[in-house]
Structure formats: structure tokens, C-alpha cells
Amino acid sequence: MHLKVVAARARGDASQELVRLEAVEACDLADYILADCTYDSKGTTSNLHRHTFWFPPTTVAKGDRVVLLTGKGKDATTREAGEPAEHRFYWGLSAAVWNDDGDKVTLIRIAAHKSVGFARKA
Length: 122
What we know:
Elements: E1 3-9, E2 18-23, E3 27-28, E4 32-39, E5 45-54, E6 59-60, E7 65-69, E8 76-78, E9 86-90, E10 104-109
Parallel strand pairs: 7-9
Antiparallel strand pairs: 1-2, 2-7, 3-6, 4-5, 4-10, 8-9
């Protein structure tokens, strides 16, 4: 895994909540999906993924920061002299994602994928 989850903040407030990641190796963010899932009573990850965010193609360097904000805004990358870049992405949601006890941040690295469309109904 080339990214690690560093923090989740402002739980329950869609305009402020965010998940902060850090690149431990250079990678393309398009290989990653971040999901909100729950755990069962034994602490095992459930198969209930209520919200998912597939990052757009973005090359990040080792040490770069990635921030996913729940609310609305314009994606942007900022760099300050001598500091790692910060890549900010907005989910574009009006309601909080991390709003229930037991919600967990799940980061998924995709080795390969294929999308197949359904034929239109006649």
C-alpha cells in the first residue's frame, strides 16, 4: 500500500469533515478507493460500503499529503517551498459520511479493474 490513513476529522459535519492520507511511496491515486464501511459486533469489516470515493488520476510523490473533504469545493493541489504537496479532493456531498458509531475508513488499492456496461432495455 503506497498510501496510509493519517487522520479523520470533524466527524458528523459535512462542511468540515475530512480524511487525511500520506503517500509513503510515489503512486497514482487512480489506483485507490476510499470507502466508509462498518464493522460487525466481532470487529470484522462488514460488506456494507455506504459511500465510496474513487480518486481521479493524480500522480503523488512520496511524502505528499492527500485530503478528501466530504463537502463541496474545487479540487486543488498546493505546494509551499520546501514542503510536500497537498492534494485536496471534494466528495461533493451535503450530508456527513462519518456520522455513525462504528464507521471506519477503508482504503482499497486496486490492482486491476474492468468496467462493463449493461445493455439498454428494449
